[in-house]
Amino acid sequence: xxxxxxxxxxxxxxxxxxxxxxxxxxxxxxxxxxxxxxxxxxxxxxxxxxxxxxxxxxxxxxxxxxxxxxxxxxxxxxxxxxxxxxxxxxxxxxxxxxxxxxxxxxxxxxxxxxxxxxxxxxxxxxxxxxxxxxxxxxxxxxxxxxxxxxxxxxxxxxxxxxxxxxxxxxxxxxxxxxxxxxxxxxxxxxxxxxxxxxxxxxxxxxxxxxxxxxxxxxxxxxxxxxxxxxxxxxxxxxxxxxxxxxxxxxxxxxxxxxxxxxxxxxxxxx
Length: 270
What we know:
Helix content: 25-40%
Strand content: 15-25%
CATH architecture: 3-Layer(aba) Sandwich
Strand order of the largest sheet: 1-3-2-4-5-6-7
CATH topology: Rossmann fold
Order of helices and strands: EEHEHEHEHHHHHHEEHH
CATH superfamily: Alpha/Beta hydrolase fold, catalytic domain
CATH class: Alpha Beta
C-alpha cells in the first residue's frame, strides 16, 4: 500500500453483492458503475457470489481524500473493497476498461487471493496510445471544455461508436451518472494514468497469467482497444466476439455469463 492507503480504511465502497458460492469480483470502467455488470450478475448469481464495487468517483463510491491514482493505490483500493466485502477465499477476477489496471495491479500484488482471471477489453501495456477522447481529457482546459459540453447526444454517439448495440436504457443510466464530480474524476484519472506507468508491471502480470487460469473475452468492434491487445495477456483461452464492441458485457451479457461459467467449471478449485 502507498502512504495514502490508510485513507481508505473508513471509506465506504458501494457494491452489488448477490448470490452464493465461489466469489466473483467484477470491476467496471469509464463511464460506468457496478450496474454495468448487472445483466451478467443476474445470470451468474444463482450459483456464484457476485461482488461488483463502484470504483472511486463512479456510481455511489466517493473519492477518498488524497486518492493518488497510482497503480499501487489502485491495488490498495481493490484490496480494501475485497476486505470490506468479507471475501476470505481466492476469487475469480473479472475486469473491463479501467477496471483492468485496478484489478491487474491488485492481482500482481496479491496473487494468493486470485483463483482465475477474466480480461474483457482492457489494457495493461506501456506502449498503448490513448484514443481520441483520452487525449482530449488528458489536455488541460480542453478536457474541461469537453466535459462541460458532454451531453446525452454526444455520449450516445461515442458510446455507440464503441458498441453499436447499446440500448437507450443503458445510455440513460450512464448519462445520469455523469455528475460534475464524476466528470472531474474522469479528467483526473486520465491525466494520472500514463501508459508508461505500466512498465515493470507487464512482466509481472504475464508471470501471473502463466500460473493462474486466464480467459480473455474481447468484443472485436472496439475502436479504443484493437483486437491485437487480446493476444498479449498470456491467456490460455481467448473468446473473440466479432459482432460486439467495447461494452461486450452490456451488448451480450448472456455470451459473457456463459463464457465465465464455462471457464469456472473447467478450472475447479483444487
